[in-house]
Structure formats: C-alpha cells, structure tokens
Amino acid sequence: MSEYNYGSQSMVASLKRVVVRRPNATFGEADPQTWHYTAQPDLNKAQKEHDSFVETLIQAGCEIIYHEVDLPDHADAIFTHDPVLVCDQGAILLRMGKPLRRGEEEAIGHALEQNGIPIHYRLHGEALAEGGDLLWIDQNTLAVGLGFRTNQAGLDQLQEALPDTKIIPVQLPYFTGPEACLHLMSFISLVDHDLAVVYPPLMPVPFWQYLKDHGYRFVEVPEREFWTMAPNVLAVEPSKCLMLEGNPITQQRLQDAGCEVMTYAGREISLKAEGGATCLTRPVWRN
C-alpha cells in the first residue's frame, strides 16, 4: 500500500478519498440523442441529487475532492470513474473509448495533481480504456473488460503501467451495440472480498468460473432491476455499500448476504444518464 493518501487497488477496502464532479450547465443542457441519455436532465434536481449523494459519502467517512477543472461540452464528465485509474504509484490517465469524452483524462489528471496525486502513466496511441471496464479482484489482480470502450492495446499498456499486477481479460458481449454503454461494471460490482453483485445473463462463463474458483459468492440481480442499475453498487467498506434506490429485490438480497446498504435518489444523475454510484465516483484512496 502507498504511504501517501492515494492508492486504490481494491473495490472494497475502506473508502477514504474520492473525486466527484457536481453537475453543471453542460450536463443540464445535454442533448439526449447526442449523449445517449434517456431524457434531458433537470439541472436543479440533478444538483440536489448529487449534493445528497455526496453528503452520504461524507457521512460514511469519505473525504471529497471536487473536480472543477473547466470542461465545456463534456456532459459525461460527472462520471469521474471513467477517465482515470488510481494505483499505488499514482494516477493512470486512461484514453476514453467514447470519442465525445476525450479530453476528460487530462482535466481530471490536473484535478488530481492539485490534490497531491502524481501522474504515474498515460495511455497513448491507439490504446483505449475506460474505468468502468477495470475491476480490481484483489490488490494484485485487475480484470479488464474488452469491448467497445476498452481494447487490447489499452490492456497491454495497463500491463506496462502495472508490471506486478495480474491482468485478466474479460470479453464483453455486443449487447445493445457501440453507442450504448456496456462496461464490465455494468453487470458486476464487488461489495466484499468474496462477495459480488452480478447480473448473470451478461457474465462471460470463464469469468464467472474464475470468480467461483476464487471463492466468490454472488448476489444475483433480477432482470427488471438490471435496467435500473442494480448491479452498479459502490462499496464504502467491506459489506457496506451504496446503490441507486428503487431496486428492492437486490437490496434485500445484499442485506441477506450480510451487507449494510445505503441508497441514493438518482433519477436525474443516474437513470437519465446511464451512470450509477460507481460511475459518479473515482476512488483515490482505499485503506
């Protein structure tokens, strides 16, 4: 682990510092067709939802870093999880597979540097990778979803940046096509060192078997709650998590598995814009 206040090679260790970006006019004016949103967000309501979401994180013991670097015409920038990965050596600036999001990488890198987190590596050339496709199985094992947003060149450069890390490629399905956002974390979140929330119909069999072989238990999401982002769950510490409200079956199954579950209202910031609790946060330090 880093001796500094950054390093996040876990999905479940206690969340100490996290980057968020409050919705601004760019988000409120987003054209749904351009950004693949279900409807145009109401900015006032979105800001209230986001403020409440952040307050929940503060109450859970998280230090909040606001990413306020100017990013005109980048509605998706509220989803701070995707442009960067924070490892024990610092920030790895990714290279977004969604062309409309290019430029977010350096902007969030600047915000991180302002808060004492150095840049360890930058993806370059033809490499593509988004944070939603990157899942730490444990401190030394990273699963990388290969699909429309993350490619083999991106995986190869992540391996170069993380030479001591075992990287597991996970082939993603076509699903609803290149314009939609299917990330690895669209169908799996880790909530404890041996517990995952999953939507089984999208789980590649080799990945499912790998997790089973490594002792993971699964909380399964029913189909109707997949569409309301029930698999998108943010662990704030082992077996304590935050998820979008309105998914009672998954919430109950998590509680039955021993989890403490917090919920947030996200009609504007999540349901309209295809991004859940993990997407809205970039963990900087887990300890």
Terminal residue distance: 8 Å
Total domain units: 1
Biggest sheet: strand arrangement: 2-1-15
Q: CATH class, anyone?
A: Alpha Beta
Rounded mean pLDDT score: 96
Our Rg estimate from Cα atoms comes to 17 Å
Give the SSE order as H and E letters.
EHHHEEEHEEEHEEEHEHEEHEHE
Spatial shape = globular
Number of helices: 9
Low-confidence stretches: none
CATH topology: L-arginine/glycine Amidinotransferase, Chain A
**What's the CATH architecture?**
5-stranded Propeller
Descriptive notes:
The chain is an alpha/beta fold. It has a single domain, classed as 5-stranded Propeller (L-arginine/glycine Amidinotransferase, Chain A). 25% of the residues lie in helices and 25% in strands. The chain has helices at 25-28, 32-35, 43-59, 104-114, 152-161, 205-213, 223-226, 248-256, 267-271, and strands spanning 15-20, 63-66, 84-87, 90-93, 119-122, 134-138, 141-146, 166-171, 188-192, 195-198, 217-220, 234-237, 240-244, 260-264, 282-286. The chain is globular, with a radius of gyration of 17 Å. The chain starts with 14 loop residues before the first strand and ends with a strand. The mean pLDDT is 96.
